[in-house]
Every structure is written in C-alpha cells, then in structure tokens.
Design a protein that fits this description.
Number of strands: 35
Mean pLDDT: 81
Distance between the termini: 36 Å
Number of helices: 4
Strand order of the largest sheet: 1-2-13-14-15-16
Largest sheet: 6 strands, antiparallel
Radius of gyration: 22 Å
Structural class: mainly beta
Length: 487
C-alpha cells in the first residue's frame, strides 16, 4: 500500500486515494495508514498526467506515543482550537512567484491534492503535478520544485532522517510511464535551489504496475519492478539496498512495524502467507489461511500480530498469528471500508465508509462512532484528514450543519476526539469571521470581502494539514489556493 501514513508524524501528510495495484484475489484493497506508496500508471498522458484518484495512496501512520491523560487533553484541545480565523492565503499561480522555468502545467488552475509543512516552509502539490514552496515567514513563494518543464510531481515525502523532501515524478519525455524519485535537502529549497537535489533508485525500473513505498515507521523504502518481478527494500536513512525478494508468486506486500506480510497467489480454498522481518528479510512465519471458495478477497491487512481478512459478503476475520486464534465480526456489523488508518500505539484502527468514520479495536468491537463528523467528500480522500501525533484527535473537512445559518455551499473543518467521538471544535463560515470588535472601523465592502473569502475557502477543500507545532491548519482547494487558519 502507499506507505503514506496519516497526516502527521514523520511524513507529515496523509491522504486516501485508491491504488491501481490490485490486492490478492484480484480485488482492490482499501487504503490503510502508515506508509506512502506511489504506483506507476498504465497510460498516463499529458492531458491528464496525474490520475491521482487511482494511482497515489497516502496513508497515515507513525511511531508515536499515545496520550494517557485523556480528560485533561480534551480540555486542553478545546482551548487549543478556540477562535480560529482565516489568516493567510497562498496562490500556486501567483504571477509574482519565483520560477526560473516556464511550466506548462501552470497554464491552468488545478486542485491542491497534498500539503506538507516542514519547518517554516509550506509545500503544496496540485493535481496538475506542480509543486510550490511558500515561506511561512514572508508569506511569499520560494520556488517551484519542478526542475524540468515536463516534470509532473506525483507525490511528496518528508524524510526526517536527513531533513529532505523526496519528490516522486513522471515525465512527458518518458510518456509519463516511469516513476522517478529525487531527494532535495530542505536547506536547498529555502535558498530557492531545488535543482541541487539528487536522484534516487536510478537502477530501478518503476513502470506500471511498479511502485515505490516510503515507510516512515520502519525507516524503509520498498520498490517493486514489474519488469523483473523483484521487490527491493532500502534503508530510508541512506538509501542503501538491504535485500531483495524475487519470488514471482508474491502478489502483494503489506508493511507493519517490524514486519512485512507477503501475500501469494491464492489457491482455490486458501491463500499462502509469509511474515518476514523487515530488517533483514528473515522468514518469521510461513502459513496458509483458509478462504471461502469462489469468494473474492476484499482485503488482507497486517497489524502487528493481528491479521485482518475479509471476503465478499463474509465475516471479518481477525487472526492472531501467534496462536492461530480467530475472532469473527459479522458481515452486517463490519462492512468493507474504502480506507483504513491504523493507530499502532493505541491498538485501534479507523475505517472509512460512505463518508463516515468508525474506530475499532482488535477484538472486533466498535469503540467509537463520531456524532458530528460526516466527511464532505464521498471518495474518503485522506488528503482531507489529519490524525494528531498523540492519536487522540482527527481533523477533517466535513459537511456543514444542516441548521448552519448560511446559504453558502461551504463545509466545515471539524476536530473530533477519537476516544469519545465528540466534536470538540469546528471552523465554519459562521465562527471563522472576524468579531464585531475586530471589524470595527472596517468598511462594509471590506467586511463583505472577508466574508466571501472565508466562505470560498471552505467550499471545496481538497487537501488538509495540521501543523501541531505552530497550531495552524492549512487547507487547499480546487482553485489551487492554500489557506492558513490559526488563532
């Protein structure tokens, strides 16, 4: 899966889109959190170079400490998000912005699909493949990360091990068919010199259905060369090759802290599985999991010692691989989600289905249903979802209240507690306006402009990021604009 974790931790961005790589049994797996995988596309073209909805998976997961003092944390969180206002706006098409190249992709506006904040730099990636870097200090454009006119950037990954940003791109000169990775130190970007970075994994042929996956938890990179049917694991700290997996019967690999799950071509009534140490590829367990005949596999996921298996119209099975104990959850209770986010420290996982979020434990019990957290977009894109590093809060772009006193199409940014399901704060077109005292002395025209800007900023949010250090929320919209919300 896309080793693209939730929206925080090392990779600092999350989003959920469907992958073009099929899971076992020919089915398409839901997204799951904790890694970022970028899959090469079969027929990329200049007219639609990104195809983000079926190629890039950004997942959310990280190695973080859970918050045990929940009651105090909830009270603190309520104050943390009080009086949030729209404070700044960045335009990816700013004509004043610095760009040494003429980028054809800037000729049309495109939606923001990913936001990453590193130190005082805000990175915004558009569906057109343009990536802009803005200075939070000066609120000006620093540079564009596209170093060639025909470069289409597909995804971003912040590598905290060496303070660099990794871009994954395709190029028109290659008919957009191969993924190319590049590492750029943050200090180079601060100087407006993204071209001083260097390429990664040049020996790998990453054509469709090949992929590259960045795993921030284990500090590993997984690549798949479809041409050779070889998986390779690299060290994320220095990009050295650790080992290769050459078995052509491997159909999919899932990564969990410390281990990898290898899923092989299924038999009629079982699927062969192997669990490997992610450090050196040592086989830790080799076994078969029984399946219902003639039923497609919806997903197989690994979470530490737990294996989650779901077939079409069948119960969810939670297998403990240590003792082979199986817990089943009825198919009417647990229906196949479109995405997962695993909360490793809390031993929970989030599921996304039909614009709703639910929290489950590994006993198969529903822990939390959110009372006011209906996601705005039906495709459950995790670009619009952020999980805090304490794994106690979820920040999402949601549908506005039915009783909200406004005729606009604006949604709201909801902050909810993962343990209780309560909505503890909300940013909408009613409460994100300047107060009457703040508006005193302003003309009616200026006040109306401010109202319109807030409503437009909340109309179609396509990417969301929460900078926990500076307590600021960043959102991107379909017009290539990035908005900053803070108190």
């Amino acid at each position: 899966m896309d080793a693209i974790g939730s929206s925080s931790g090392g990779s600092r961005n999350r989003r959920i889109t469907t992958s073009s790589s099929a899971s076992n049994g020919g089915s398409r797996s839901p997204l799951c959190g904790g890694r970022r995988r970028v899959v090469a596309t079969k027929n990329d073209g200049w007219s639609n170079p990104l195809l983000a909805n079926n190629t890039v998976k950004k997942l959310q997961r990280r190695e973080i400490t859970s918050n045990r003092h929940r009651s105090g944390a909830i009270t603190k969180s309520v104050h943390r998000f009080r009086n949030f206002r729209l404070t700044e706006r960045y335009d990816m098409h700013d004509p004043v912005g610095q760009c040494s190249l003429v980028l054809p992709l800037l000729m049309r506006r495109a939606k923001v699909i990913e936001i990453v904040v590193v130190h005082d730099i805000v990175f915004a990636l558009a569906s057109s493949g343009v990536c802009a870097a803005f200075s939070r200090g000066t609120n000006k454009t620093i540079c564009f990360l596209n170093i060639f006119p025909d470069e289409v950037i597909r995804s971003l990954f912040y590598n905290k091990n060496n303070d660099s940003l990794i871009t994954v791109s395709v190029y028109a000169s290659d008919n957009f068919s191969s993924l190319k990775c590049r590492s750029i130190r943050i200090e180079y970007i601060q100087r407006g010199k993204p071209d001083e970075g260097f390429p990664l994994f040049e020996t790998e042929s990453l054509k469709w259905p090949g992929f590259v996956e960045f795993d921030d938890v284990n500090e590993k990179v997984l690549t798949y060369s479809a041409q050779d049917s070889i998986y390779k694991v690299f060290d994320l700290k220095n990009y050295t090759l650790l080992y290769s997996i050459t078995d052509r019967q491997v159909e999919e690999i899932k990564i969990s802290p410390g281990i990898m799950l290898l899923i092989f071509s299924r038999g009629q009534s079982h699927v062969p599985l192997k669990i490997l140490s992610i450090e050196d590829g040592t086989v830790l367990k080799d076994f078969n999991h029984l399946l219902h005949r003639n039923k497609k596999v919806d997903f197989i996921e690994q979470f530490n010692e737990k294996l989650l298996v779901k077939q079409d119209n069948e119960n969810l099975q939670i297998l403990d691989v240590r003792n082979a104990e199986v817990k089943e959850v009825g198919s009417t209770e647990f229906m196949t989600p479109s995405a997962f986010i695993f909360l490793y420290e809390n031993q929970l996982f989030l599921t996304f289905r039909n614009q709703t979020v639910s929290v489950w434990n590994f006993r198969g019990e529903l822990v939390t249903s959110f009372e006011d957290h209906v996601l705005s977009h039906p495709d459950c894109n995790t670009n619009n979802i952020y999980i805090t590093s304490d794994q106690d809060l979820i920040v999402s772009f949601c549908k506005a209240d039915n009783d909200q006193a406004t005729d606009t199409r604006a949604g709201s940014i909801n902050i909810s507690n993962i343990w209780t399901g309560k909505c503890i704060a909300k940013i909408n077109s009613s409460n994100a306006m300047p107060s009457k005292d703040e508006q005193e002395g302003s003309s009616s025209n200026k006040r109306q402009v401010e109202v319109n800007m807030v409503e437009e900023a909340l109309e179609d949010i396509t990417a969301l990021y929460f900078d926990e250090e500076h307590n600021e929320i960043y959102t991107g919209n379909s017009n290539g604009l990035v908005h900053v919300w803070s108190n």
